[in-house]
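Sequence dictates fold. Below is an illustrative record:

_____
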Amino acid sequence: MDNASLTQSQREALIVKGFGPTMVHFVKNNGGWMFNLVFAHLLFWLFGFTALLEFGYSDLNQDSSGQIKSGPSGSGVGIITTLLMAVGTLVVVAKAIRYDPNAESGGIGTHGS
């Protein structure tokens, strides 16, 4: 069956029924981890990256009020958000590599049935 000959509703029905490994199924089955990934990236790019870009990772670079924004004696926003983003990304990549869309979900409430 040619994918171009399918209507939009037929394509959506194939995705919903689990026709082959799709990114949609991975995201639906790993919603919590996908939220963690997006949130970790948002934290890094909005707070960690901007602090590291502006002040670097040094105690010598202070803001106008004398506070150390990033560095060993600073708030830790740079290193913590970097580690959070890295761990979140590695977990989702590992889950994506091991993902089997044809396996039973076995989610909460199934109790082996």
Summary: Confidence is low (pLDDT under 50) at residues 106-113.
